[in-house]
Amino acid sequence: MQLNTSEEKQSLREVNAGQIDYLKDLVDEIIKSTNASHNRDLIRRLITQSVRLGEDDLDRLDLKILTSALRELRDAFDIFAPFKVRRKLTIFGSARTKAAESSYQLAKDLASAMATEGWMTVTGGGPGIMEAGMLGAGSENSFGIGIRLPFEDEGAPSAKAYRVEMKYFFTRKLMLVKESDAFVSLPGGFGTLDETFELLTLMQTGKAQLAPLVLLEPPSSRYFELLSDFIREAIEEGGYISSQDMNLISFSKDINAAKAIITQFYSNFQSMRFVGDQLVIRVKNKPPESLIDMLNENFQDICKDQPDFRPIETTYEELRDQDCLHCHRLAFTFNKSSYGRLRKAIDLINEISSSLA
Question: Whole-prediction pTM value?
Answer without folding.
Answer: 0.88
